[in-house]
Design brief:
The complex is a heterodimer.
Chain A: E1 4-7, E2 10-13, E3 19-25, E4 32-38, E5 44-51, E6 57-58, E7 67-73, E8 76-81, E9 90-97, E10 107-108, E11 112-116
Parallel strand pairs in A: 2-11
Antiparallel strand pairs in A: 1-3, 3-8, 4-5, 4-9, 5-6, 7-8, 9-10, 9-11
Chain B: E1 4-7, E2 10-14, E3 19-25, E4 32-38, E5 45-51, E6 56-59, E7 62-67, E8 72-77, E9 86-92, E10 102-103, E11 107-112
The chains are: A mainly beta, B mainly beta.
């Protein structure tokens, strides 16, 4: 149990375009989802926390107008990188948890490698 | 806020030897400490975790120890195999619903055949 599906696994886009990444919990209700960014050979950096039905809470330094997060249902959260630039190229990872899983390690998606050209 | 340090940043061992990775944390209120394994191009996978009311936990070749007083915890892998090669992250958080993890910087483990 506790499977989180993330799509796409990789995407290449042109500068100035927008890219949407989906994170789905397949077998549990994910009331909270986290979005991380990971640069090569570095640790995971939390970008934002999203609770179902409410606005996401962004970490300091993360532009909320650039990284749009929507958590409209208990099984789906999306991250949209708007007006992407080459410096947005990175590995983006989501993780999810639900009230039924208090005290458990959060489940991570498989990540999305974004390359902006 | 919480700060997690992790050492070493890279570790190479011969197949069959043991590997130890150490982490320290700063927030005495943290009480849940998972370890994640991340293979190249993939998301982190939980391999073992420990709570602050326990000093040691073992799962086959993997064990974690926790010293709550000193605020450090360690991952021990015995009889290492090439497939253990990956980046390992420790993390800490308060075991409350919705709390975020603070991750260590990671350790790149290479098991040499």
């Amino acid at each position: 149990g506790a499977v989180v599906s993330q799509h796409p696994s990789w995407v290449i886009c042109k500068s100035g375009t927008s890219v949407k990444i989906e994170c789905r919990s397949l077998d549990f209700q994910a009331t909270t989802m986290f979005w991380y960014r990971q640069f090569p050979k570095q640790s995971l950096m939390l970008m934002a926390t999203s609770n179902e039905g409410s606005k996401a809470t962004y970490e300091q330094g993360v532009e909320k107008d650039k990284f749009l997060i929507n958590h409209a249902s208990l099984t789906l959260s999306t991250l949209t990188v708007t007006s992407a630039h080459p410096e947005d190229s990175s590995f983006y990872i989501c993780s999810a948890t639900g009230q039924a899983k208090i005290g458990y390690g959060y489940t991570f998606g498989s990540g999305t490698r974004l390359t902006v050209v | 806020g919480e700060n997690v340090e992790q050492h070493p940043s890279t570790l190479s061992v011969q197949e069959g030897d043991s590997a130890v990775i150490k982490c320290t944390y700063s927030d005495s209120a943290s009480n849940y400490f998972p370890w994640y394994k991340q293979e190249l191009g993939k998301g982190p996978q939980l391999i073992i975790d420990i709570r602050s009311n326990v000093g040691e936990k073992k799962d086959q070749r993997i064990a974690v120890t926790l010293n709550k007083t000193a605020k450090h915890f360690s991952l021990h892998i015995t009889e290492t195999q090439p497939e253990d090669s990956a980046v390992y992250f420790c993390a800490a958080r308060r075991d409350n619903y919705g709390q975020n993890f603070v991750f260590g910087p990671g350790t790149r483990l290479s098991v040499l055949p």
